[in-house]
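Write out this protein's structure.
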Amino acid sequence: PYAIELISFEIFERWGGRVFFTDNAFGRWDGYHKGEPVNPGVMLWRVRYKCQGIERSAAGSVTILR
């Protein structure tokens, strides 16, 4: 069995400003930043985690629709 440990999960707006961060595997983003809903568009995400003691990362994008 594989054990995965979350290091961090982040979401960034298109200019690179971070709008969400968590290091809790059960953390959730509600689509808001500083109390306001984010604008529709493309956001970037990055996750860092450990699998079998090796640190890894992955990144991608998500489109926000309202």
